[in-house]
Every structure is written in structure tokens, then in C-alpha cells.
Amino acid sequence: MIMRQLFLIVLVVFVSLMNTYSQTAEKFASAWDKEHISTIFPSDVRHADIKKYLDSLRKLGIKVDQVGISNAVREIYQVEWGKGPLKVFMWSQMHGDEPTATSSLIDMFAFLQKNRDKDWVKKIGETMTIRGVPMLNPDGAELYQRRNLQGIDINRDALDLKTPEARLLKQLRDDWNPSIGFNLHNQGALTTAGRAPSQASISLLVVYGDEEKTTSYGHERNQRIASGIVNGLQKFIPGHIARYSDEWTATAFGDNFSAWGTPTILIETGALHGKDEMYLVKMNFIALMTALQSLATGSERTHDPNIYINLPENSSGVLTDFMFRRANVVTVTDVTSISVADISAVTERRRASFIAPVRIRGVGDLPNTRGLEEYDASGFNVVQRFGVLKVGELAEFYFYKKERTVDWVSPELEKQFPPDAIFSTGKWIKGEKLVPRR
Predict the structure, then answer these.
(1) Going edge to edge, which strands form the sheet with 180-186?
(2) What is the pLDDT of residues 122-172, one digit of tens each?
(3) I need a labelling partner for 228 at 20 to 30 A (CA). Which of 29, 133, 161, 363 fits?
(4) Is this prediction's pTM over 0.85?
(5) Within the chain, how many helices (H) and strands (E) appear?
(6) What angle (nearest 5°) sits at the alpha carbon of residue 275, between those of residues 269 and 281?
(7) Residue 110's CB: how many other CB atoms inside 10 A?
(8) How far does Cα 26 stand from its chain's mean position?
(9) Would you state the pLDDT for residue 333?
(10) What is each CA distance from 328 to 332, 338, 381, 401, in whole angstroms?
């Protein structure tokens, strides 16, 4: 009887502690909705904006230090929160045009500090010390380009260390020797989760430290953490989570962090049709908070690594932004040659505040490619606005109903024969809904 009572007491205490410290992905999402301090679409955030964000963190009482400078003498900063023994290191935007996680890091640190008196947040701060470098490549971010001002991909400079940004990142790791790393990136918007035409909005990789893919305690722990992240994100983006390729890249920082003794998790943010950049900031926030929570409570030990291992792998080539099916393609330089074809088009990566060009990706029979937006163009003659409908040209299209008589060689085609519909810069500027959506 006494043993049974003791067991019940222990069980009640355990459940009470779990209730005190446990959080859910839904709670993290709600917290971000209410408390995030990032206000600018990540792709529009420049170095001056990150400095303003960091000033906000300083006002909250968070430790923010300048730790280095870029090739163009722009300051690079490190943020620190918590006093615990487990060292967690995160860095973002080593590629200047991969900005999503930079805003997520700002929101994460702000949230932890503003909620530091809550028991479960205290537990995180007592368990670990978190350091983060948002915007490692401020010069690339300023120009919205992948490489730094030397024209070097920082993420391929882990061994040669030709760039000041790479030297800084290695120094920060070597001086502190963190136990776990989070390498935060963006991937192509048309990357898919497996061969299905579903965007990979988040892809994860538990990075090996050698070409032979040797496992270790840290690697196995990271697999369990990644599984916990998957479980949380499945509630928001089911079918849109993938596993990044684990091919060994000898000159990359993630691979070398793991080789140097800091087992690393790569998080690659893609896109999700119908959702804006801020939604993906929230997904990153959920992922990072889920990881920290699982480390603080030890719940990562209960996660099944196979949830991560069995994710569909990243793929490409099966998805496009726009698809116009079975169009009558008119070439104004040869109006005797009107062919029936599918037309696919993709949107180039640009800042949110910029107009992004949309270019023709394919013309022909494209049964194995799916569009995020698909239209039945079988009832229309389609002309490229500037006369050349071929791969690489702008996807600027005039749509004419097939029954109309049109002089295709007219020097003032649009004026003399107004199109029934016009598709320009990725949207319908005339005749919206006239071309049926598939």
C-alpha cells in the first residue's frame, strides 16, 4: 500500500512538472502572433533594419555585442540569452538572399526575454546558453545576393577562410565550442517534398561530420530534436516538410561544424503558396522554440528519430509557379506556325517590395510538371507581349479567344486588337477569371 501511494505521489509530481514546463506548437504559434517584434518582410530587411531590431533587444535587457565586421565594414552582431551549461549556437543569412530565419531569431530572443519569469522559460534559461548571429553576411543582404562582396559563397569557405565572415564564424565556434548548432537558410520556392508537387516549406537536415556518415550521441540527439520539430510543424504545414540532401560537402560550414564537434541541424525555408513571408517566419519560430523546449525538458529523448529519417527527400523539377495548359501558341514572326502547347513560367527571387520578373520555363508537352496556379488555355490564342514566346523570355501574355479574327502582324496589336485577357508580372491585369482556373 505504501509503495502504491509513493508511486502515485511521484506520478502526480511528474505530471505536474510536465504541465508546468510543457508547451505545444499551437502555443508557440499563438505567442508569435501576439508578441513578434519583426515587422518588415524578411526579404526587405537590410543592415540598418537589423540594427534597429537589435536595439529593441538591447532595450529589453538582452546582451547584444558586435563581434566582427564584413568585407564592406558592416557590423556583425551576436545575441546571447540564458545562463545554462548547454551551449546552443544559431546563425542565419550567411547567404544574403536567404533572410527568413533572421527575423525568426529576433522574435525568438525577444520572446524569451519578455517571458523570462514564466517557469518553462526559466527552465530554458537555466538549462542552456543560446547565442545567435543574425545576418552573418550583411553585405550580401544589402544587395540581396547569395555571395559576399568578394564574390565568394561564405558557406563554401569553411576551410580556406578567405572571407572575413567565414573567419568570424569559425572563431565564434572555436572560442565557445557549442554543443549544438542551428544553420539557418532558405531554399528555392519550387523545391518539393519528394516527387509530389508539394512545396517543401521547411526542410531539415541533421548534418553528418564526415563522408562516411558516422553517427554520434550528438547526431542521434539531433535526429530526435528534428523529429520533434516535424511533429510540431505537421500541425501547420502537413505534407510540406522534407529532408535535405545529406551529401557530404567538404567545404561547407554545417558539415564542418559537425566535424569540429558541434553537431548541427540545418533548417532550410522554402515557400508556401498562398502564405506570405511572415508566415514562414512563424514556422521557423515554432521550429526553434520546439527544439529549445525539447532540450530543456529532456523530452527530445522520447522522440522517434524515424519521424525525421522517413521524411521525403528534397526534390525539384516537378513544380512551376504558373502553367497554361493546351494554349494555341502564336509566333508573330511566323503566323503560319500556330502550335498547341503547355506553357510554364517561374517567378524570380526578389525582395518583397520589388516587382519580381516572371519568365517562361517551358513550352511544349509538359505532363509531368504541375503549376502552383494552373489555367486551361485551350480556348485561346496566346501571344508573348513582345513577340517572342520561348524559354527565357518574360511571361507577358496576351490571350485572344480562338474564334476571333486577329491580324497577328499588326504593328499595334494591342491597340487595334485589344486582348481578351492580359497576364503580366505574375498576375491578371485584364480578364481575370476569363481563362479558367484548373
Answers:
(1) 63-69, 75-81, 128-133, 86-92, 180-186, 264-269, 202-206, 241-243
(2) 999 999 999 999 999 999 999 999 999 999 999 999 999 999 999 999 999
(3) 133
(4) yes
(5) 12, 18
(6) 45
(7) 21
(8) 20
(9) 74
(10) 12, 6, 5, 10
Cα angle 283, 279, 141 (rounded to 5 degrees) comes to 90
Scanning the structure block, which residue is given the C-alpha cell 568578394?
Answer: 150
As a whole number of angstroms, the distance between CA 202 and CA 267 comes to 7
E strand residue ranges, 111-201: 128-133, 180-186, 192-193
CB 401 within 8 A of CB 360: no
242 three-class SS: strand
Burial readout 394-409 (b: 16 or more C-beta within 10 A, e: otherwise): bbbbbbbeeeeebebe
Q: Which one-letter amino acid corresponds to residue 150? A: Q
Phi, then psi, of 27 in degrees rounded to 5: -65, -40
Query: What is the Cα–Cα distance from 368 to 374, expressed in whole angstroms?
Result: 13
One DSSP character per residue, 10-79 reads: HHHHHHHHHHHH---HHHHHHHHHHH----S-GGG--HHHHHHHHHHHHHTT-EEEEEEE-TT--EEEEE
Copy the grid coordinates of residue 96: 544574403
* Among 209, 264, 228, residue whose Cα is nearest residue 87: 264
**What mean pLDDT, rounded, does the chain reach?**
95
Backbone CA torsion sign across 231, 233, 236, 239: negative
DSSP summary character for residue 101: H
How do 397-401 and 421-424 pair as beta strands?
antiparallel
Terminus-to-terminus CA distance in the chain, angstroms? Answer: 68
Please name the residue that has the C-alpha cell 518574360. 394
Beta-sheet strands, E only, within 103-240: 128-133, 180-186, 192-193, 202-206
Residues 6+ apart with CB under 8 A from 294: 224, 225, 228, 300, 303
